[in-house]
């Protein structure tokens, strides 16, 4: 008896030893089998079928890897909506280095179209002197020039007395002069209050430039902030800066912007002015015009309300008339405008269930197509 006949005989003997209830249940389940089996004796294998199997297996592996990469990656969805957050504040984060203007000559001011102004901002601002090599020096003296140091005695206001008010600090004396509309550059250099407020320069390394960094919170309306030479004041409803006319040609606005952003950091979204350099070959007023787009970034764990912006820049030469008036102010100006639209960015991951469904579809689809091709090739070979 050949081996195949022996196997069939053994299977019949095993079936005869089964109990009747078990055989009955097995028969019922066999009727529900949607996938009838074909004995090995009736299977025909061909060379073309081997090629189809190898190619389909490679294709399955490639598609599986592709789906796995898609499952592990993040998909971004973006859309534009109307901005309803105009009541919020706008946070400005900046780090700007001016290489030719010392910290005691630089003033940070901001204003907006609602009429609000802040001159000589020092809150949440740090100034660090830079040397000839543009390296930080005198870190211990940062921002000391902007602080008020009160005296126990009543200091003179030098002709700008307001209701017998004492001017014990440089800030008080400067404010008294500003209320009169007088220039302050003289008292900044010669008034005892201002001279004693300055740190001991004998222990300082001579400063050539200034690195200014910090955070500003402004109304969410169009406006500007700037870092400019001189001390800011409001004279006849005009924003002006006072400094000695002989100093103006030393105010070169060559600068480096290490960081400029509006709001919190958005992953995967660089800021156009980060690590930006500008070299001024002459005395200029350099303007950055920013178009700010409110942005909401959402991922699986959090939501960030921030802003993106686009920018273009313009330099205007500073010229002085015969009467000592200048056409524009030497400094770096950031003029921003806020759009009424909001850019929504959503990061989404493929779910595990979706991934499994796609894998099953890939494997099943490739297997079905391979079976169809194999059948076609087999019957064509028989013809």
What does this structure look like?
- Strands 1, 3, 4, 8, 13, 14, 15 and 16 form an eight-stranded mixed sheet that branches. Strands 6-5-7-2-11-12 form a six-stranded antiparallel sheet, with no helix packed on it.
- 28% of the residues lie in helices and 31% in strands.
- Among the domains are: 1-33, no CATH class; 44-74 and 350-383; 93-138 and 205-283, no CATH class.
- With 383 residues, the chain is an alpha+beta fold.
- The radius of gyration is 39 Å and the shape is elongated.
- One of its GO terms (cellular component) is COPII-coated ER to Golgi transport vesicle.
- Keywords: Membrane, Transmembrane, Transmembrane helix.
- Residues 29-119 form the Endoplasmic reticulum vesicle transporter N-terminal domain.
């Amino acid at each position: 008896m050949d081996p195949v006949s022996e196997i069939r005989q053994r299977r019949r003997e095993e079936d005869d030893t089964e109990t009747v209830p078990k055989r009955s249940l097995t028969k019922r389940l066999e009727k529900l089998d949607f996938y009838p089996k074909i004995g090995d004796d009736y299977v025909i294998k061909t060379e073309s079928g081997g090629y189809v199997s190898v190619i389909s297996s490679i294709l399955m592996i490639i598609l599986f890897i592709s789906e796995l990469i898609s499952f592990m990656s993040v998909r971004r969805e973006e859309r534009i909506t109307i901005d309803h957050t105009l009541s919020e504040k706008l946070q400005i984060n900046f780090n700007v280095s001016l290489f030719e203007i010392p910290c005691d000559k630089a003033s940070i001011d901001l204003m907006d179209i609602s009429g609000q102004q802040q001159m000589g901002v020092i809150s949440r601002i740090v100034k660090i002197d830079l040397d000839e090599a543009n390296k930080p020096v005198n870190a211990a003296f940062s921002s000391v020039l902007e602080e008020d140091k009160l005296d126990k005695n009543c200091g003179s206001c030098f002709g700008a007395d307001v209701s017998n008010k004492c001017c014990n600090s440089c800030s008080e004396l400067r404010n008294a002069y500003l209320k009169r509309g007088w220039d302050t550059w003289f008292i900044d250099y010669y008034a005892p209050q201002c001279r004693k407020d300055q740190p001991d320069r004998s222990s300082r390394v001579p400063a050539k430039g200034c690195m200014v960094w910090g955070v500003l919170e402004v109304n969410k309306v169009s406006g500007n902030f700037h870092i400019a030479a001189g001390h800011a004041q409001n004279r006849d409803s005009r924003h002006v800066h006072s400094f000695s006319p002989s100093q103006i040609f030393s105010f070169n606005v060559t600068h480096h912007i290490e960081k400029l952003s509006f709001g919190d950091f958005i992953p995967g979204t660089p800021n156009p002015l980060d690590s930006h350099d500008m070299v001024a070959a002459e005395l200029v007023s350099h303007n950055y015009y920013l178009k700010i787009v409110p942005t909401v970034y959402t991922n699986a764990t959090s939501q960030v309300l921030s802003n993106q912006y686009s920018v273009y820049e313009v330099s205007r030469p500073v010229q002085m008339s015969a009467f000592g008036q200048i056409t524009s102010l030497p400094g770096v100006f950031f003029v921003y405008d806020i759009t009424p639209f909001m850019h929504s960015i959503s990061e989404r991951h493929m779910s595990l269930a979706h991934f499994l469904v796609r894998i099953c579809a890939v494997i099943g689809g490739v297997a079905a197509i391979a079976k169809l091709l194999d059948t076609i090739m087999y019957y064509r070979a028989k013809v």
